[in-house]
Specification:
It comes from uncultured organism MedDCM-OCT-S08-C1656. This is Lipoprotein. This protein has 4 helices and 7 strands; from the N terminus they run αββαβαβαβββ. The protein has helices at residues 2-21, 43-58, 89-103, 117-126, and strands at 26-27, 37-38, 73-82, 107-108, 138-151, 154-167, 178-191. Strands 4-3-5-6-7 form a 5-stranded mixed beta sheet, sandwiched between helices. A two-stranded antiparallel ribbon has the order 1-2. The longest helix has 20 residues, at 2-21. The chain is elongated and about 60 Å long.
């Protein structure tokens, strides 16, 4: 009976140690006012990237003003992702639409984003000489790549994020070309 009394507290202590001491897979931002985030890239990261990068992208002098003085119309195109994290297409598009709308610098087109860039460019070429009042001026394309570096007890993940605008104006000499791009990186360290 005496042995049983000694074993019970020890086993409770062991359970407590296992439940609190084995937590991993989260990183903490340096700013304590921000919430913990997961070890992988999140949709929140994408939205923060886009919110920082889009105003610089759309304000680039390489983009021409519209003749009707309206903000350019942006179609949200495909995303090339070479990462382990997955995002739903709808959450990615919703985040970009919010960024574009809140910036006040552009309008977004409601076209489908599942088509490859070449389909958008081919359609724009077919519209040469026609009225293109409701056609997107530019296609916003995203690329994300993940790089991993394994160190002793730490996994370092670097995510490179790029957004670019492809010219879709049918009568433009740069139709189909990447006109401007912005890129940023984020590094996440995960204890193993």
């Amino acid at each position: 009976m005496k042995k049983l009394k000694n074993i019970i507290p020890f086993s409770l202590l062991a359970c407590l140690a296992f439940s609190t001491g084995c937590q991993s897979g989260k990183t903490v931002r340096l700013d304590p006012s921000q919430v913990e985030e997961y070890r992988d890239l999140t949709i929140r990261d994408l939205n923060e990237f886009s919110a920082r990068m889009f105003p610089n992208l759309i304000s680039n002098p390489a983009l021409q003003k519209r003749s009707d003085n309206l903000p350019p119309l942006i179609a949200i195109g495909p995303m090339t992702a070479k990462i382990t994290a997955e995002f739903t297409e709808s959450s990615r598009i919703r985040g970009l639409q919010k960024v574009i709308t809140q910036s006040g610098l552009a309008r977004f087109s409601s076209s489908k984003s599942g088509s490859p860039t070449s389909d958008y460019v081919s359609f724009a070429r077919s519209q040469q000489g026609r009225s293109v009042a409701n056609m997107p001026d530019y296609l916003l394309v995203q690329t994300i790549e993940e790089y991993r570096e394994y160190q002793k007890k730490v996994l370092v993940k670097t995510y490179d994020y790029e957004i670019k605008l492809v010219d879709l104006r049918p009568d433009s000499p740069t139709l189909g070309n990447d006109l401007v791009f912005e890129s940023e990186s984020i590094v996440k360290m995960v204890r193993r």
